[in-house]
Amino acid sequence: MSRDRYEMVVGLEVHVQLRTRSKAFCGCSTDFGAPPNTNTCPVCLALPGALPVLNERAAELATRAALGLGCKINPVSVFARKNYFYPDLPKGYQISQFDQPLATGGSVVIGKTADGKDLQIGITRLHMEEDAGKSIHDRYPGATAIDLNRSGVPLIEIVSEPDIRSSAGAGAYLRTLKQILQYLDVSDVSMEEGSLRVDANISVRPPGQTKLGTKTEVKNMNSFSAVERALEAEFERQTRLIDSGGKVEQQTLLWDATQETVRPSRTKEGSHDYRYFPEPDLRPLVLDVKRVEEAQKNLPELPDARRMRIAQEYEIAAVEVDQLMATPALADYFEAVARASGDGKAAYNWVMGEVTATLRATGGDLSLFRVRPADLAQLLNLVRDGTVSHTAAKRVFAVMVETGKPAAQVAADEGLSQVGDDGAIASWVDEVLSEHPEEAKRYMAGEKKLQGVLVGFVMKKSKGRADPKRVNQLLSTRAG
Ligand SMILES: [Zn+2]
After folding, report:
1. So what's the pLDDT on residue 253?
2. Element spanning 158, H or E
């Protein structure tokens, strides 16, 4: 196995679009999906004489991201021109940061080592830059179209140390990083919309060797699992090449998802001579130390800390907390329900049960969901104090989803409050027994397992309002 004779060494470069309403250096909208070339102006079209002005919000979000990843913020950073020619880059250069980036250092914990220590992936640097436009090759036969809506959209690039040793490790790093950025609320982190993109640097070496092998760069992966598969394919290619006496050449490769293979990029990017120099149209970015301290103080609770707190505060198992943490909105919703109802376990069951099922079925968004946390908490309380049975609660919830009305009102309006009154339950039991004479006879004759079936009939007849405990008791007395 090549896996025993070679070690995989991976570093990742992650481009993340910052959640701003306007672009990095002009006032154009960053809306995704606008008609081509409509979100443009002289600055992002690179018309002569147009001058960039830094978007303050972009700098703020980039700083927050860097702080959340434990980076050291450099009080002075410098924008630089990264020169290259590409049809969707009308300026002929990209504004980026080079030798004086916004932030350096930092780390992401992706799990535990065999001896129980934190498994950390180092972050080399985090810098700000702008996005290029988009070339569209498949829309018009024989022609390439250019859409400059993305041109000038603010990005951060997060460069990891070559600390990753497996494709699974790369996947874990990306998933953890994505969740941190999500909880920091700095980006949509949507790979589908291109607001999170990954380039992977990979080399191989015999285990124990400290010197790094020659690396290749793999691009064009559109999901985290594609990154993992691309790394496996490139690892195999490099080890086979070395085993057969060849040498790995430094080059850029594109992942081909349909062929499950990598192929050399057609564009010549080998030399990487970007002739960086400081951007003369922008002054160095000087951050106010007080504002950076303020940002550090106001940093949102990070996923690891929140996971531990939720588990403790609401007495929920780790796997369940992970489900609730899927998005910050879901975690917020759960916590609001759990706090208002004082019952973490019930809140978990409802949020991961009815709430997510309803959202999935309707393709709905939690932020627009009609049942607000306080209303769901009220429903939980009605169930706990016995006013509404568990079965009826599901019907109450369905009506709440439709109408947005409070639980108590729905229960009253729909006549779904639980009936513990023996007279009503007894008559439902009688009706069921006479409507199902065969089952009734067998049950009376001692076939106890039919009790569940009969209880089900009674519950159905009562539209979920009968107290199942009383129904069971009454049936038992009938069986004598
Ligand atoms: Zn513009």
Report:
1. 94
2. strand 154-160
